[in-house]
TrEMBL record:
Listed Pfam families: Fibrinogen_C
PANTHER family in the cross-refs: FIBRINOGEN C-TERMINAL DOMAIN-CONTAINING PROTEIN (PTHR19143:SF424), FIBRINOGEN/TENASCIN/ANGIOPOEITIN (PTHR19143)
PROSITE patterns: FIBRINOGEN_C_1, FIBRINOGEN_C_2
Organism annotation: Nematostella vectensis
SMART domains: FBG (SM00186)
CDD domains, per the entry: FReD
Record-given protein name: Fibrinogen C-terminal domain-containing protein
Transmembrane segments: none
Fibrinogen C-terminal domain residues: 1-182
Cellular component GO terms held in the UniProt record: extracellular space
Domain of life: Eukaryota
Swiss-Prot/TrEMBL keywords: Disulfide bond
């Protein structure tokens, strides 16, 4: 795993990173279950590993974002868990703090969907196919950090964080990371 020991006191296990478009994130269930990519570049750690990290103790989620002008924002959720595969890797997030705006609470309690496993509550459309990225889609999303990587510009199927820059702004860099709740540096 990749650990971030510098952000906000360290102790973070990074489970997702987008930074240059080198990795294809428009993938199926098996890839998202087991993980893919390069830990020093773009990657998804794997839903089974995220479940293992978050099911035995309370955890915090942090999402770090960067736009194409190198402005940065973050969102932190004091409770974070991903359920197991039998529960379709449902997302659980708690109270939000940060300066990016809250784009994850919209997906709270929602099952994970991939292009070959449509678990979103929308019966009339497949949000993964529509937005080209696996995610915890409701109708369809307020964040899509696994969408297509575009070199800036406005696209509906891109890496996005709605509350900060809108549905159509394509972000430059994202990291999703977790650590035990109440983590303190010694």
């Amino acid at each position: 795993v990749y650990c971030d020991q510098t952000t906000d006191g360290g102790g973070w296990t990074v489970f997702q990173r987008r930074q240059d478009g080198s990795e294809d994130f428009y993938r199926g269930w098996a890839d998202y279950k087991s993980g893919f990519g390069n830990l020093t570049g773009e990657f998804w750690l794997g839903l089974d590993k995220i479940f293992a990290l978050t099911h035995q103790t309370e955890n915090t989620l942090r999402v770090d974002l960067m736009d194409w002008a190198n402005n940065t924002r973050f969102a932190e959720y004091e409770e974070f868990a991903v359920m197991g595969e039998s529960d379709l890797y449902k997302l659980a997030v708690g109270d939000y703090t940060g300066n990016a705006g809250d784009s994850m609470t919209y997906s709270n309690g929602i099952a994970f969907s991939t292009k070959d496993r449509d678990n979103d509550p929308q019966s009339s459309k497949n949000c993964v196919v529509l937005h080209k990225g696996a995610w915890w889609y409701r109708n369809c999303h307020s964040a899509n950090l696994n969408g297509m990587y575009h070199g800036g510009g406005s696209y509906a199927n891109k890496v996005s964080w709605y509350v900060w820059l809108g549905h159509d702004y394509s972000l430059k860099r994202t990291e999703m990371k977790t650590r035990p709740a109440g983590f303190t540096t010694a």
